[in-house]
Amino acid sequence: MARSTGHSRPVIKDVAKLAGVSAPTVSRYLNGTVKVSEEKRARIAKAIEELGYEPSVVARALSNREMDTVVVFAANPEAFSTSETNHGVERAARACRFLMNIVSLDESDMDSVEARVRMGLSVRPAGAIVYQYDRAGIKALDYLPKDLPLVVVGGGFGDADRQIVNAEREAGRWMTMHLLDMGHETVFHVTRPKGPTDNTRTDGWHDALKERGAVIHEPIVVSRDLEEAVEAGRRLGERDDVTAVFAGDDETAIAVIRGLKEQERQVPDDVSVVGFDDRNFASMWSPALTSYGQNYLEMGQRAFRMLYEQVKAKRDGVEPPDPRVEVVEGQPALRASETVYVPWR
Amino acid sequence: MARSTGHSRPVIKDVAKLAGVSAPTVSRYLNGTVKVSEEKRARIAKAIEELGYEPSVVARALSNREMDTVVVFAANPEAFSTSETNHGVERAARACRFLMNIVSLDESDMDSVEARVRMGLSVRPAGAIVYQYDRAGIKALDYLPKDLPLVVVGGGFGDADRQIVNAEREAGRWMTMHLLDMGHETVFHVTRPKGPTDNTRTDGWHDALKERGAVIHEPIVVSRDLEEAVEAGRRLGERDDVTAVFAGDDETAIAVIRGLKEQERQVPDDVSVVGFDDRNFASMWSPALTSYGQNYLEMGQRAFRMLYEQVKAKRDGVEPPDPRVEVVEGQPALRASETVYVPWR
DNA sequence: CTGAAAGCGCTTACAG
DNA sequence: CTGAAAGCGCTTACAG
User: Which of A91, A267, B233, B342 is the most buried (most CB within 10 A)?
Assistant: First the structure.
């Protein structure tokens, strides 16, 4: 096929003429909505091939009232979870020949959320996926038309009818329990701000301590600036009742370890530290960092598939599958940054 | 404004009727292409407000022949550079009320590149941004219509008329020279596969060694699987002529360090190791990793702005700005993982 | 400055 | 199974 000049993109009429049929027939051939005679199918196929014809999704969208596009609303574009999930959505969408539009939400400017959502909807997407790892995502929900296929990713269980969640609270609980099981009397927690739902690693940490009747120290909240986590590590290192720390993510964990070291506290000998997310670098760390991996990529893929079911059903005029919440499991990765606590002092 | 039901979205005709004007007048008001009388402007504004009218970008695109959309073609969606650049493009696009479509290319399936590009073009984007960090990106260029505004990100200098590049070769040269300047007789190189251009960190490494007349050992190529880099570190650790290693990225660097340690080779005392990209975790490492930071976010933003200039000029019917290549500087971050080499043995 | 008309490239009843 | 006609919601010459 010759390189397109952009001026002479063939349109359906060109195909029809070359194949000796009408434009609607070509359309029917393309969409498979109505049977087209075998003989014409062949002629049309040939014409399309010859012309290098590609239907205009724009024109199609104007007729169909929607595009083969999924719009993703997400805050914190720099977060690991966001970019991994995006990647998953894109991959699954591509397989269905859907395009993905990403519209970033800005948590620090909640007033802009409505405008952003309108912008995202302006292309008449077939459906929307909203990441509910944060408040902006939750607010976005308010502005989506109720008849638009929707899947929520993350957030609390049952926050939406159709949802892909990770068992994050359970994971946080698991990690904390793991430390408690090793003999630590309590577990400190350093984390970036907790999400707005009750299904967070922080909630799970709290659950475990409460369940065991351990002392619950206020979580230390840090920003993405790792220096804050280092400082948190230093402060924790000054206290001798600190023997175990659950960091809300791997970056924070290694920063805390650094702060601890500055106070001559060794990991894991003096203090056990575990992270969360199981980033690539976690296993390379010294000591190799114990962490809990979440499958954000998988979540993104599943989110698109769940959305696509709805889109398909809507287009076929059948009932959509029943609402449901799918849980994507993560898994702990036990390594060398935590160890049993022996209260010999 | 009431929550949209999706069924009754007002259209331009509704606005026209309510304002007592014709649809074209509303259109002119919206686009500012032709003067509209003050009195009608007010009535139209009021009608739009009252109805909560939002123009259909799809219909507009069908008339205008293009959407306010930029399509990004990128391979390696999981790469740090890709997701950071995406983020930059999205941010700049959003400021101009442009939407971003991401179409991933698959390096392992070069045959699919043409289809992917066609898919991306099917929305009639106003322009395209292609990341040329890899072969798939380069190939994508062949399928873009020549009259479509285009900006290439990354790649070799002058690979395209309009381009945002980082001085990667120079950076690789700088890091290698830095090690050489500290007395190391040569510098070993462990890296993920080199990009297809001649503006890579690996090329810069080679430049420096050649310039200084140092021995040039074949680069050790590893995949994203960090175990391979650990293994590379082990092998390097077995040789006593290894005193300095330039890793192609920070993840590889820390994996190499791990391998080195397994062979009882300390960093930086026995071997100096430097990374590339200056990821968040680099400064947290023990020893803090020397690295070279690239501003991918900035590159993404600039790429969109450069594209937008062209789009704007085209729409205004004026000459586009002259082609140019912009270089986005990075900066070295010197830390603790390298040190002077004293040949006392 | 403004309206009636035609067109962007498809799809979908409507009649065969 | 298939074609002629109308319509999706805008914009742009074309005449005032």
Answer: B233
